[in-house]
TrEMBL record:
Database matches in InterPro entries: EF-G-like_DII, EFG_III/V, G_TR_CS, P-loop_NTPase, PrfC, RF3_C, RF3_dom_3_sf, Small_GTP-bd
PANTHER family the record matches: PEPTIDE CHAIN RELEASE FACTOR RF3
Keyword Protein biosynthesis part of the UniProt annotation: yes
GO CC annotations, alphabetized: cytosol
Record gene name: prfC
Protein's organism: Dolosicoccus paucivorans
Protein's UniProt name: Peptide chain release factor 3
Amino acid sequence: MAGLQEKVSKRRTFAIISHPDAGKTTITEQLLLFSGAIRSAGTVKAKGKGKDFATSDWMEIEKQRGISITSSVMQVDYDGLQINILDTPGHEDFSEDTYRTLMAVDAAVMVVGTGKGIEPQTKKLFEVVSRRGIPIFTFMNKLDRDGRSPLELVDELEEVLGIDAYPMNWPLGMGSGLLGLYDLYNKRLELRGADREHDEFIPLDEEGEAVGDYEFKSSSLYQQGIEDAMLLHEAGNEFDLDKIKKGRLTPVFFGSALTGFGVKTFLDAFVDLASAPDSHELMNGEILEPTDERFSGFVFKIQANMNPKHRDRIAFVRICSGQFDKGMEVTLDRTGKTMRLAHTTQFMADSREEVQSAVAGDIIGLFDTGNFQIGDSIYTGNREIEFKPLPQFTPELFMKVSPKNVMKQKSFHKGMEQLVQEGAIQLYKTYHSQEYILGAVGQLQFEIFQHRLLNEYNAEVEMTPMGHRIARWIDEEDLDTSMSSSRNLLATDRYGQPVILFENTFAENWFKDKYPDVTLHQLM
Ligand code: GDP
């Protein structure tokens, strides 16, 4: 199928990861701008601390621009390519979904603020992406402000994240003194123009000097910048596309998302170097090519109440092979049942449209009435296609939970069971008293859980925060019930595996000293 191959090769499916406020929303907006999906740039205002749980960073853009981005996936055309950007919510809506979304992308863009450098959430998200061995591109943002020195930033990146870095361009100055970008990759100097359309490009000669007579060439900013860049070029890492594709070398770009400076240079290199959809290894060891004619995909996220008025639920499917056509019949791997995919949605920047067709690399949304669970595979053809299970992530926040009304025990249990199965939250029981504990990676998961139990199951719950805990699994044969105390609470997960919830690292270390032979395991 030549047509399929060509379509697949044009897909770039990625997520932007960052610590809140590094500039993820702003750079997403720039991408929309460059792709022509929106027409004018405006600053996306600082996000409100609203309690509306359905908010995502994109909804801010949506509100400001009056366009419908509606949640988690956006598809735009850029430079003849079809780009799928998946949102990884930060802030108060940070959750396991954020991590799982990273299982559905082929590359990641990591936005780092030059003022703050690598921050905790950047590191967490980086680690999840890094384990997948997919390309990671770094954008050092906010160059229009005075920040830390570029050398220091690149050093920190390598040190803290443990990845090699390759500066693709190098800033000459910063803040109000920013002259431009010394662009080693494109062999040109990018000068700041009056606006993003008018950046000026000056080619570099053999020696790496800007061609032509310019006043700035005698400035120390220019000379020092070139010296640093050259030094890095000689002493630093080599450009190695293979290492980039495996996520072992991150190309680093400098720029300013707010003013648009360096953004197009970054995007162009990104779409050029980032991989098109790749093959997947299945449970049976088979390698499934994206151009395989059999359609297949997996559910990585289920979002309920996208529109509170309709109470709809959408299962997000990453297509891994073949082509999706509206109305096609697929098999759901978990149950072996077939179903027709009639009600689907695709996510364009300017509208939420019914999908007619989509190919490997794309994300489709299936309207769901409770058929799907996170991690489900769907496929066409007679041969089963079973993807490797999605990893589970170690929760960090915990809550004790109980039904408010004892008469409603039944709906409480039903709701709990279904929501846990859906992957919305993790459930534990204290070993001794069999009390329910919920675990999550983000606070918002609790709020959604509470809200949904009430609205969908009519069960009101009492929640008692336990705060942060360090969850570590132990082997069953190591289990000793006297291990449990308030500082290291013994519990079981929903599969009955023993897990200890440590109050803090101190408690964990104390435990390790006391039980040196017990191995502590963690999820991802
Ligand atoms: P997010 O939380 O990562 O999505 O960050 P935002 O894109 O919302 O940006 C956070 C704040 O930083 C906003 O006030 C932006 O206007 C600002 N910001 C983003 N990019 C830049 C930049 O390149 N320069 C400057 N000076 N501010 C920026």
